[in-house]
Structures are given as structure tokens and as C-alpha cells.
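Dear H.,

Thanks for agreeing to be a second pair of eyes. The structure we're designing against is below in C-alpha cell form, covering all 179 positions.
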């Protein structure tokens, strides 16, 4: 098995190719999957670089929507309320975040990723933010983690450790997988 840095390098290259091929109907598929969670607080994200863009699902969601805010290295994410047209500013690591708004604790999270595998594990950027966040949220109540990316990002096996949190679903342009 590759180590995480080797896997991440290969996964970034695969994601770049998949992004160039286009997202297809992935956003609409994601919106359909999330429709059964209307009314629940949804965490999306503002796509950067070659990430799959969840905006269609965020716009379609009937309930509060928030996006992640990195508070500090080594800490769980916090989530600030987002709505179309709200004032945005540059956050840590170049992600756009709402300039103001209520802090929301999401029940459903759309999780960006670099790679994923058939077991439902994801390879992130290496900061552990989502793993830490999911662990904390899941300790309080049922929390749904929905990976979102391109089918070309699937790896044979994601290297994992005891801190890695499994996804519940993975949505790509090829469809939905449940774990």
C-alpha cells in the first residue's frame, strides 16, 4: 500500500484529469440524494481548483446551508451560514468563506476529497480537519458524511490510520455508492 503522500500525489493527478473531462450530472445527482434531508443543516463547500463543485446541491437544499471555516491547525472545522449572494472573504488555505453569519452545526456534510476507495474511506488534503470534525459531530448525534468527487478519483485502497472517518455515501458523475 502507498503511503498517504504518494497516494495524494497520484490522486491529485487523477482528479485534474477527471475535472478536465467535466462534472457531468454529478451536481444534480448530489441534489437528488440530499433531497431526503430537507430541513436538516447541510454543510457544503466552496469548490477550489479542481474539486467537484457542489453548488447545485447547495442551491437546491431546503434548509440551512453552511460552509467550513478553518479556525486553527489541529482543530475541528466550524461552519458558518451561507446563502447565495452573501458577502464572502478569503479564508485559510484560499477557501472562500462567509464574511459573517451564524455558526451552524451541520447534520449532513458534503465532503470534498482528493481520492476515495470502495470501502468508503477518503483521502483528504492532509490536515485532518474533516476527520476531526466528523468524529466530534458523530460523538453527539448521527451525522451523514457524503463524499463528492469524480469517479476517476477512486483509488484501489486509501491508506488509513485510526483517525480516518468513513464516508456514508460517495456521489460522482457515475452515480451513488453507499458504504
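And this is the sequence the design step returned. I haven't edited it by hand at all.
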Amino acid at each position: 500500500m502507498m503511503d498517504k503522500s504518494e497516494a495524494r500525489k497520484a490522486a491529485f493527478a487523477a482528479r485534474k484529469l477527471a475535472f478536465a473531462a467535466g462534472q457531468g450530472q454529478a451536481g444534480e445527482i448530489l441534489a437528488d440524494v440530499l433531497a431526503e434531508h430537507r430541513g436538516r443543516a447541510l454543510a457544503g463547500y466552496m469548490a477550489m481548483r479542481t474539486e467537484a463543485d457542489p453548488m447545485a446541491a447547495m442551491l437546491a437544499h431546503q434548509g440551512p446551508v453552511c460552509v467550513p471555516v478553518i479556525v486553527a491547525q489541529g482543530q475541528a472545522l466550524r461552519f458558518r451560514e451561507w446563502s447565495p449572494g452573501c458577502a464572502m472573504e478569503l479564508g485559510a488555505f484560499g477557501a472562500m468563506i462567509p464574511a459573517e453569519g451564524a455558526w451552524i452545526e451541520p447534520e449532513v456534510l458534503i465532503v470534498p476529497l482528493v481520492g476515495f476507495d470502495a470501502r468508503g474511506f477518503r483521502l483528504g488534503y492532509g490536515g485532518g480537519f474533516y476527520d476531526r470534525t466528523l468524529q466530534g459531530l458523530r460523538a453527539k448525534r448521527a451525522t451523514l458524511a457524503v463524499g463528492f468527487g469524480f469517479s476517476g478519483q477512486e483509488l484501489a485502497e486509501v491508506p488509513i490510520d485510526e483517525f480516518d472517518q468513513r464516508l456514508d455515501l460517495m456521489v460522482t458523475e457515475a452515480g451513488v455508492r453507499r458504504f
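Two observations from my side: The chain has a mean pLDDT of 94. The first strand starts at residue 42 and ends at 43.

Warmly,
E.
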